[in-house]
Amino acid sequence: MTSRGQQIAPGADIFETLARAAFERLPPAFRDQLGDVVIRIEEFADAEQLASVDLDDPWELTGLYTGIPMGEKSAFHSAQQPDMIHLFRQPLLAEWCESGVDLADLVNHVVVHEVGHHFGLSDDDMHALEDAAE
C-alpha cells in the first residue's frame, strides 16, 4: 500500500497473519504441540524483556519467547501465564528495510527461532527446523 509514493509499514494485523502462516509451515510434530502458545505483536520490547536477554537497545530485539520450555514443565506450572512468542514490529520493520529480506521470510525466521526456544532446542536444531519449515 502506498501514499504519495511512500510505502506504508505493515500493521500488527499483517504481522499476526505472517506469524500464523509461519506456524502452519512448521512440521506437524512441532505444530501440534503449540496449541497453547500465544503470539503477541508489540511495537518494542519493554525494559524487563530486554533485560531478560541482556540487551539495552529495543531496536536489537525482534522476537522473544517467554514461558517455560516444554522439557522443563511439570504439573506445578499449570497456573503460570501462557507461553508467548513476542514479535517486535518496529525492530522487524527496521531489519526488513535494512536487509531487503522478504518480510514473510524474516517473520518466519524469528517465529521458528522462538518456537525453538519453546521446545528447548539448540541454535543448530533451530536452523534445521527452519530449513524444514521452508
Automatic annotation (TrEMBL):
> Mind telling me which Pfam families this protein's record contains?
Zincin_1 (PF06262)
Gene3D superfamilies reported in the protein's UniProt record: 3.30.2010.20
Record-linked CDD domains: MMP_ACEL2062 (cd12952)
Question: InterPro entries per the record?
Answer: Zincin_1, Zincin_1_sf
Q: What is this protein called?
A: Metallopeptidase family protein
The species is: Sphingomonas gilva
